[in-house]
Each structure stands twice: as C-alpha cells, then as structure tokens.
C-alpha cells in the first residue's frame, strides 16, 4: 500500500485513503439507527477485502467482526479511520489516530463550521490537531466515501454497480439521486465517491486530482455548493480536463439558492456566472440542471469528445425530429448539411415520402424493418460534413409497438449501431421513447457503451458537452508568455500612493496603463490659469471634458466635478472655476490636485473592462458592453488571469450582444484585436502589480481602429506587502 | 347519439365524431402490417361497444367482424368513418361517405399538402368534396384518435389508462412518448386524443373547444407545430382556459426547428416568441421542454391552480433544498418567508441542527421517522405566508434506504399528506429520488391526486404553472371598451392615400395618431422660404430636426433627407437646401411634398411600439425598448389586439430590461401609465382602421411625465376593402 506521505511526485495522498488495506471504524455500533452501524454494514456487505477494526469500548464484536476498545489497542496502524462519533469527541479522536500512525480520517459528524461560531472553533481545533499529528481529513459533515473497485463502501448504499464515473458531491442526497438514476437506467456504474463536507483539510481540488489519477475513473463528476480554494480547483481542473472529462453542477445559480447553500455547508457561493465562466475556461463541462448530471457524465465518460458540432438526426417521427432540431440549435449545435450523395443513398433505402434533409425522417419506412435505422445512421456517419449522429424515436420499442417478430431485427439494428459507434470517432447517441422500459435492443446498446436517453433534452445536452470538449481539446495551445514585470514609473506611482495611504488618482492610473501599452486619451492636468490656457491652446478645435482630480473625491459627478463638451478658452475657464467651487463646497476638506482636461472621445461602441481579486478564485478579468442596458441585463464575461489570447477572444465571443461588436444598424464593426490586446495587457498588469486590488476601465470606447480608455480607476489593496 | 349538426348552441360537432355509436373502417385489413389492421385491432381489443363496419371488398370478415364491400352497402349510416386507404383514393371515398350520410371522417393517409404541390391540390379537392357533402374531416396525415372513456382506440396503443388528460398532438410519436411516460409513472391517465394532422377542415381550435366541453377532461394538452387559424385558437383558448388548464408545447422555437416542422406538417410556424406571448395572454400554460409536458399537464389537471407564488420547501437533504431554491427563483417563484410561530413549531419537532428557514432542512430528524415530513408540511401549509408546499428528497425510499420497518411510518406520512392536500387550496407537490422505483407510499400519493415527480425541475415547473394560472384567473376583469371608430380626419387621410396608391406620409401618420390622443411632437411641414422662416420663428431657442417628406422615399437617412440638432434660421435654411438637393439627387423622379420641422425630443428612454397583422394571429401589438442592444437581444413583448389595460401593463413588465423603465444609474423612471395609454390607443387605432397593415412608432421617447413619438410610419394594406 502506498503510504500517505508518498514521495512519488504528483501522486495524490488520497490513493492511500480511498483504497486502504485496513479501516478502523471509530464508533462502530450494533444499533441499526447509528451511522457506525451503517458504515460497518457497508463494509461487510460490500465485501471489503481489507481488515476492519471496529472501535467500541462496550462491545466485543460489531456485525460479527472483533471489536477493539480504542484505536490505541488495535494491533497495526490502520490505513484509514472512519470517525462516526459526535462532533465534540472528534478533535481528541483525530489526535489519537495520529498517535497510532493513522494517516487519514473521515469525519461524519456535523455540528462544525456550518453550525455557527462554536462549531467553527471546534473545526479549527480539530484541524490544528490533525495538522500537528499528520492526519489528513475528509469532512467533517461528510456523507462518506466509496471505492467500488476496491469494494470499500462506507455509505451502505445497495445495488451500486462498479463503473467509470467518479463522483464528488457536497450533498449525500445528490449522490443517492445519481445512484438511483443509474440503477433505473441500467449499465451505469461508479468508481469512487467522496463527500467533501466542510472541506476543512482536503477539498474539491484534492478529490478532483485523485479522480484524475484514478485509472478506474473515465469521467469526474462534481456537485459543488462552494469551494474552499477556487484557484487550486481551477488549476487542478485544467490539468485533469486535458485527459478526462470533468462534469460540474454548481448550485447557487440564484441569490435564493446561494443562501440555501450557505446554510447547508457554510460555503461562500460567489458569483454564479463568474464561477461558470472560470470553470469552462479550465475545460470543465458545466451542466445547468441537476437532471443533466448523470446523462452528461455517462455520455462524456463513454464517448469523451466529438470532432465538431454538426449533428445528423435520424428520426422515425416528425415531432421528435423537430424537437431535436430546436434543442440542438438552442444548445449551440448545428444540423449538419448532408451531401447530395448522402441524400441519394438515404433516398435509395427510404420511402418516397421520407425526408432526406437533416433531420432525416424515415416516415414509416422502418415500421416493419427497424434495423434500417442503423443503415441510415451508417450512411450519415460516413458523410464528412457530419460530426455526430443522434437517433430519436421509437427504436427499441418496435417489437412492442408493431409486432413481436420485429425483436430480432431490432437486435440486428442494435448490433449494427454498436459496430458503427466503435468504428470511428463520431459519437453515436440514442434517444428512445422506450428507454424507460429497457427493452433488450437498448440494453445491448448501453452495455456496449452507446448512451441511450429517455429525454431528447438529455441527449442533446450530451452532444453539446461532447462538442464543447472537442473544441476545448482542439484549441491552439499558446506558449506561456514571459512573466509580467512592473515598469519603473508605475512602481513609483504605486509606492507613492501606498505611502500616502490612498488609491491611484485618475492621471496616475492612466500613466500606469500607458506604461503597459494601453491606449489612453491625451490629457493634461491643469492647476492654474496658465496651465489652463496652455491646455485650451493644445486642444483648440476639439471639444474637451474636464474632471476634478482629488484623492478625497471618488464620485466626481456627485461633487459637480465633471464638465463635458467644452470648446474655447472662455468655456474652459468658466468650467474650471465651477468645478473648483463645486468640489470645494461638496468636500471642504478635500485635497484638490487640479482638473484633468481630455479631448471628448469620438462616438464608438462603449465597452467596460474590469479586474478584481476574487476571494476564492484570485485575479479575474471581466469584459462587457457598456451602457445602461447591459448593466441591467448583466451580459458580461469573466476569465481567470493570466489570460491567454484564446481566453480573451472567447470573452468577446461569449457576449449575448456580441453582434454589436461586429457592427449593427449600419455601424462599422470594432477592432476586436485591439480589445483582445487590451484584455491581455490588463491581465499582465494585474500579474505585475500584486498591490492592485481592483481596476475599472469604464467606459472604453471601441472604434473600427483601436479604442480609447475614457475613465480609469485603480484601487490598491490595504493588506498587500509593499508593491514591487 | 348527438347528431353532427346538433343545433344546441355552442356544442362542438366533435362530440358526435369522438363518441360514435358506430364506426366504418374503410380499408380494414387482416394484414398486420396495414393501418387498417391496427385500427381494427384497437377497436376490437379496446372493447369498443358500438358497431364496427369493416369495409373491404375482398374480405368477408376482418378480425372476425363481418366486413362490407363498400360504405354504400352497410345497413345504417355509420357515425364516423375511418379511412385507411392511400391519399389518391380519399376524395372519392369522402364523397361516398357523404352520400351514405356519414357526418365525419378520419383520414390517416399522408401525401397531401405536406408533400408538395400535387398533394396540396389533392387536399383541396378532398376538402371541396367534403364541404359539398357535409362531411367533417380529421386529418389528413393524422396519427388517429382515441376516446378511452368511450373505449374508442383507433391507434391500437396498449396499456393506456382512462384519465383526465386530453391530448391533441401534431406528432403521433409525441402521443406515444406521453403514453409511455404515463405508464412508467403510474396513475396518469388520458381522456381523448386527436392527431390533427394537416388540419384541412377541423383544426386545433376545434379540438380545444371539444376538450373544453368534454366533462372527462380536466386539462387540455397540445403539441403544436403550426396553426391553421391562430386567431380562432386564441379565442377558443381564452374561453377554455377560464374553466380548465390548457397546456401547450409549441415546437419551432428556433429557425432550425421551424424548418423541420414545416417539412413535417407543412405548417407555417410563425414567430416563436410572439406565439408564446399570445398563447399566455389567452391563459395558456406554455411549457418550454417536451419532458415538461406530461408533468405539467398532470399537475395542472390535478391541482388546477395555486393561490400565489410563495412556496415552502421541506427537504431531508441540503443539496436538493439548494437546487429547489435555485429552480424556484429561476421559475419566478419565491421561497415563502416563514412566520416566527411557524419556525418555532418546526423547531419543536426537529433536531437542533435542522434549518427552519425556508427551504426547511430536517437534517436527519426524519431518518427513523419519515412521517414527520408530513407534520412539517402541515406546519408550513398553515402559515398564511405560504401558497404551496414542495417536499423534496427521499420520501418513499426511507424503508429501502434505512430500514424496512419504516414502511408503515412512510405510509402514515403519505396518508397525512393526502389529507393535507385535500384540506385546502394550497397545492402539495412531491419530488422524490425514489419516484422511479414507485414505492407504495408514493403510489398512495399519486392515486390520491398528489403529484409525485422524479426531477426537481419538473416539480418546480408545475408549481410555476399553478402560480401563473392562479394569477391569470385572479386578474381583474375589465369591461369591454366601446368599439373603436375612425375619426373624420383620419378617414380622409387614409382614403386619400389609398386613392393615390401610397402609404401614409409621416405628417399624415402623425395626424392620425393625434386624432387618437397619441402625443406627437409639434411639427410643421415647410414647402418654401416663407414657411421655413415662420417655422424658425415658431421654434426659436429650441434645436430642431428636419426630415424630407416624400411618398417615394422611405429611407430618409439614406437619401440625405434628415438633419438633426439645428438652431437658428440660418442653419435651418442651409439644411433645407441640403435636404432638397440630396433628395433630388437620390431619387430624381421623387415627388417631394416638403420638409418636416420638429423640435428635437429631449433625452429620455427610447422605446418602440409596433403593430402588424400576422397572417395567422391577426392584429398584434409589439412593445420593446429602443436602441441597438435591444434590437440585438430581441427583448420585446407581443399581445394580440385589442389589448386590455392589463395586457398593456403586462407588456411593460415582461421585458428583461424592464428595470430601465423604473430608472437606473440615477435616471428617473418613465411614465408607465402614459405608455400603457399609448399601447391601448394604438390597439384601438388598429381596430378602427382595417386598412392599416402595419404601424411603427420608432423611436418613442418616454419621460417621467408623458412621452413623445419621434418617428411614425403607417403602411396601408393593398388588399383591404375601402377604408371605413
């Protein structure tokens, strides 16, 4: 057995815990109502082959297994301890495990951080002692673990099949739900399950890493309410998703759901749209509905990816063909355009009233010859314009619907579909009305790894996930850019502002941006009549904007500190006086450094660029269209920094209103490359200056050629070590 | 039996066809591959109690029922004929039915309008003959009909249960899918099914009217690809939905789906968002996913409505509680805020670690006492702040999950839930992980009319449909307004334009609007220097816009016919000359009536109002926010005219970006009442002038007090009888 402090580089310590030679069950019980009974039952009934050490000072045996009065009394150091006792007893027991040489413990009890301040103190105490004595912790407040290929089942769940789906779920009921679904669909099996609970020590990133390394797992499936370390999870997800699919359902899509999640596991949910964007950036397949989790995991586990998004649909009824066409379009998939030859070959085997335009509708041809559906699938799969094949309709139910004698022909069809699925890289997915009845032909498909679904929506979402994953794996890989460094001027500006205990002034922010090649409008800071006159001359013939500059005034408009569209020295002089007077009245104590004069930016498309340091995900870049409507509709894209060029381009493409960037109503399109460069520069800036807590460029005006940053705001962190 | 020409007012002729005393099966066959065999099988096996007349010139009997050589030979006039023969034979056979006194025929054959021009001619011929001889038609290209309470089953579908769900589906496979789902869920039964096929004669409106009148049907459920007469359907839906729920799944949500539907039934799909808005306006419950059809129909059929949208969730696991909270919020439902007393009563029966904040999480309390879930449901149902109760989790599976001895307590819980559901008007809905296993406790719930679902998404969508229906039924009813009449000036303007064979000029359009009390900006049409000088004086001190007025120039900007923001007589004179020259160059032959001078509208919120006559739904009003983003995001609302005040208000509330109307970023809100009046006026205008084909007010600028119509375009129909 691998020791927990396995020195082999990159190997997760969890292998030792989740495939243990021996397990101590602390709190093992003969009382069927106790967790310590159920865990013992799961081990014994599940056929666990290692040694079980029930720990119970009052019993000689638990479920006929010899019991021990304490962990100190057992004859060897168990590889894993399962602690089934109440919260208050746990810190002490963890310490005793450490003394006995146990390297990992699973803590079932709730009543820790999720239960309030007292519980949080208890959790800290437990973690402190665990760290001190070298025990890694799963939980507390965990629903348990299983590893079916090792016959380790601490949940006492019955009727589980070993398979290739690994699951980590912050809800035990969700695991139960997946297990029951798997049972009802048949042929769907699991590898390892972990309930991370409060993630005191080990968290989602650790479990994902383990599933990534576990050879029995072909797809990692996670139900997540909140992360302990989101950045670590993204890093792990990026590594794992390069070799196997990672499926995540993230709860807390709404404020209402976030409150519920927080009361459940004490986890901070964070912004849902941001979380989804960052997970997808790391190659994760995010599903939006809980009833998509198992279908998508099954489909990705078996088929892994699709070469593209062009789907051919073979249907034996027009209604389902139409529904499939709708759902495919909504999911971002295309109905493949079939080649003339393909259509000819279809026409040769189908009735004349059949439609050979995709979605292909056999229009009754197969009523007494269902295996012809497989022939149609073979024909479309051979078309180079087709990336994936979806069969929708009655297949599997012909014998029942029409005549029992058709059962043999259906089975022949299933065999042909199995062969087709195994012969190339184009996914074959089946939706059947008869899936819930589990007829033999569909059983044959499932058993051979062809996914069969009982809802078109599921089948389409699987194809979308396969297409997304294919595109993710096919994306051009970019060489990592050189680490970003701060420039000399920027370093001084930041150090100076920090010294003065303030954020950057607008001209300072723009100077810093300019040092990173970010295009800002020409500007002049004026402090007296002479400088004002000079600015008026410099910008003669161009309308200008004037804005007060003060470390004590952040809402310049409220302070009457902004004037727009000014032309001519007289207008500038009047505006200068107005601004100084208004600002003085608004904040009599404010230090006023002057007034910034900039040319008015010509009309263009307003966009916004933001940067923040998220408490769980670290530096994140945000991009959106500006203006009031997008603020209301929240049409923005997020990516974790540092950005790749592909990430930046994807941010532009992701907006629902992206057509505005291409030019609408006769307006020209904007310079997307310039915006991509802007996002990359901003990402580098964030990397170079750990002292920058937040950055807002709002608005940036994008033009057919370049862009102009009209307003820039840079906030510094209070708690960062002196800026580099 | 009711005769088809039943003189009782308002009674659908379909009662005679769908509950017939006798049926002739034309093309009845002993060959199991033929439709004429399956139809006979359905009748005989289904236990049809009326007389069956198989028509087959070559057989003495079909399925042991005496056969007849032709319809002329049968000894009485059958109430219904089922025609199973190929398309080409149908017109002749319909005529023979008419001769024999048959009042209705069901045409199974395809190969009519959906198959191209030849088929369309055949369909016209069939309809012509049917009308001439008084035979009503179901189909052609229909999947058939059943009426389970009458034991009439022409589809030979097995294992159907009689029940209260009426179905009309343009896809036979969709009916099959619903039937199989119903079988797998248990306890879900059907009343009547009709496949409308091409709707040559009878269409969706007729079938819906029948289901509305049918006492065995508690919910009408329709799968629709396209309408033959959308306006008739809306009228019928409004009447039926006043007394029983109408559930519609409309396919063709995407262009891809519309093309597929059109190749399937030849139906024109129309705009999907418009169709959904109009259906909802008529009280229809529109479902977005095909796998919601049966759950929503079942839930609405059994529970009919909810008094409100505040849902209390009882959960035995945090994960599903959180998912339910998310889905409820997304569906527009609220988590009810539980009263302090309610929470105290919950706390008194639950463990201390349970959450008594909605969603209530029992946190293990019920593991050995599942009927306590019913107690919790009773407690929250008694809270006046709760409109509906949703149970999520393992109920029904406790015996299997924990201990078989719990089965009795689960059944006690089920009985208590049944009693609770029957005791008030608050819907009780159950989601259970164990629903697919159909344990006895869940069977008891279903059998007693408490819906049980196997996906949270379904359960939540049912509650949303119940809440929507409650709100629809509770909406204030408005007295019908007096019929709108054209004004004298408008009549002249329209008559004159029609006489000249042109649409209305902008000043004419605005004059017509003004006659209906619609606020347009003051404006002057100038045709020479004197009028221009007078206009300059009249608008002195206000910037103005100038626009060319010509019946031959519809794109004024393209023609250089627009100038904005002009001030002072000199500027106006220059702009006038420019516009006349540019327009002359752009269209040398154009008649130019002058230039319209209007004050520039002050800044406000841009909205658009449109009116069109849809080919299937008739006059429709459209409302949206103006500007480029909304054009891109297509955030608009539709209602069939004439509008009620409630309809108009709902259009404003429906926009995703509706917050803009309330004022964002410090801007004041707009005068919603004025916009509602505008929509009502526009609706009256459409009613008063059948000659108006299309009307666009774009933009209208909305203010905190009133609005201004900046541009108005009114197109007249070519083919309308002379305007009133």
From TrEMBL, chains A, B:
Q: Domain of life here?
A: Bacteria
* UniProt xrefs under SMART domains: CoA_binding
Which intervals hold domain CoA-binding? 17-112
Whether Chaperone counts among this entry's keywords is no
SUPFAM superfamilies found in the cross-reference section: Glutathione synthetase ATP-binding domain-like (SSF56059), NAD(P)-binding Rossmann-fold domains (SSF51735), Succinyl-CoA synthetase domains (SSF52210)
- Using the record, list the residue span of the signal peptide; answer none if the entry has no such feature: none
Q: Which UniProt keywords apply?
A: ATP-binding, Ligase, Nucleotide-binding
Which terms does the record give in the GO molecular function aspect?
ligase activity
Entry keyword Hydrolase: no
Q: Which InterPro entries match?
A: Acyl-CoA_Synth/Transferase, ATP_grasp_subdomain_1, CoA-bd, NAD(P)-bd_dom_sf, Succ_CoA_lig_flav_dom, Succinyl-CoA_synth-like
Protein name, as recorded: Acetate--CoA ligase family protein
């Amino acid at each position: 057995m691998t020791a927990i402090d396995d020195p082999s580089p990159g190997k997760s310590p969890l292998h030792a815990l989740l495939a243990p030679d021996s397990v101590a069950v602390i709190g093992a019980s003969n009382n069927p109502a106790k967790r310590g009974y159920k865990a013992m039952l799961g081990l014994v009934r599940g056929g666990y082959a290692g040694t079980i050490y029930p720990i119970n000072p009052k019993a000689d045996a638990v479920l006929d297994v010899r019991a021990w009065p304490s962990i100190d009394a057992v004859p060897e150091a168990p590889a894993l301890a399962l602690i089934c006792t109440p919260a208050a007893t746990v810190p002490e027991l963890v310490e005793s495990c450490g003394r006995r040489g146990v390297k990992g413990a699973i803590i079932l009890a709730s009543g820790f951080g999720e239960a309030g301040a007292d519980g949080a103190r208890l959790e800290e105490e437990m973690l402190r002692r665990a760290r001190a004595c070298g025990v890694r912790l799963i939980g507390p407040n965990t629903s348990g673990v299983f590893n079916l290929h090792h016959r380790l089942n601490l949940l006492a769940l019955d009727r589980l099949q070993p398979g290739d789906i690994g699951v980590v779920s912050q809800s035990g009921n969700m695991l139960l739900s997946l297990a029951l679904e798997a049972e009802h669909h048949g042929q769907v099996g699991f590898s390892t399950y972990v309930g991370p609970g409060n993630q005191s020590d080990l968290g989602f990133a650790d479990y994902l890493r383990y599933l990534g390394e576990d050879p029995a797992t072909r797809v990692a499936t996670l139900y997540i309410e909140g992360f302990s370390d989101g950045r670590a999870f993204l890093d792990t997800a990026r590594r794992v998703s390069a070799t196997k699919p990672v499926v995540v359902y993230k709860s807390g899509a709404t404020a209402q759901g976030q409150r519920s999640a927080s009361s459940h596991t004490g986890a901070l949910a964070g912004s849902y749209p941001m979380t989804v964007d960052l997970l997808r950036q790391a190659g994760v397949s995010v599903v939006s509905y809980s009833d998509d989790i198992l279908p998508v995991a099954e489909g990705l586990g078996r088929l892994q990816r699709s070469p593209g998004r062009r789907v051919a649909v073979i249907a034996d009824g027009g209604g389902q063909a139409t529904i499939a066409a709708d759902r495919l379009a909504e999911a971002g998939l295309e109905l493949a355009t079939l080649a003339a030859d393909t259509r000819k070959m279809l026409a040769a085997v189908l009735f004349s009233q059949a439609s050979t335009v995709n979605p292909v509708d056999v229009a009754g041809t197969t009523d007494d010859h269902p295996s012809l559906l497989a022939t149609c699938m073979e024909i479309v799969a051979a078309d180079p314009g087709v990336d994936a094949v979806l069969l929708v309709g009655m297949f599997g139910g012909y014998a029942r619907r029409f005549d029992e004698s058709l059962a043999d022909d259906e089975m022949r069809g299933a065999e042909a579909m199995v062969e087709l699925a195994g012969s190339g890289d184009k996914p074959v997915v089946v939706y059947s009305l008869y899936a819930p009845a589990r007829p033999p032909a569909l059983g044959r498909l499932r058993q051979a790894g062809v996914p069969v679904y009982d809802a078109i929506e599921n089948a389409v979402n699987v194809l979308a996930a396969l297409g997304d994953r294919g595109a993710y794996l096919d994306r051009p890989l970019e060489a990592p850019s050189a680490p970003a460094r701060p420039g000399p001027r920027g370093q001084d500006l930041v150090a100076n502002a920090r010294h003065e205990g303030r954020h950057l002034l607008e001209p300072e922010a723009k100077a810093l941006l300019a040092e990173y090649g970010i295009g800002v409008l020409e500007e002049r800071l004026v402090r007296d009549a002479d400088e004002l006159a000079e600015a008026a001359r410099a910008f003669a013939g161009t309308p200008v904007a004037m804005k007060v500059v003060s470390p004590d005034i952040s809402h310049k408009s409220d302070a009457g500190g902004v004037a727009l569209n000014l032309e001519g020295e007289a207008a500038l002089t009047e505006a200068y006086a107005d601004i100084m007077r208004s600002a003085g009245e608004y904040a009599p104590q404010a230090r006023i450094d002057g007034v910034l004069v900039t040319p008015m930016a010509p009309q263009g498309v307003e966009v916004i660029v933001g940067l923040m340091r998220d408490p769980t995900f670290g530096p994140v870049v945000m991009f959106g269209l500006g203006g009031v409507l997008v603020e209301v509709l929240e049409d923005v894209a997020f990516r974790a920094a540092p950005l790749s060029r592909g990430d930046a381009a994807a941010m532009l493409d992701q907006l629902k209103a992206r057509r505005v960037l291409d030019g609408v109503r006769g307006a020209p399109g904007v310079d997307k490359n310039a915006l991509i460069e802007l996002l990359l520069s901003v990402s580098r800036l964030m990397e170079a200056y750990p002292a920058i807590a937040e950055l807002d460029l709002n608005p940036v005006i994008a033009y057919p050629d370049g862009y102009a940053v009209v307003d820039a705001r840079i906030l510094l962190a209070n708690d960062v070590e002196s800026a580099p």
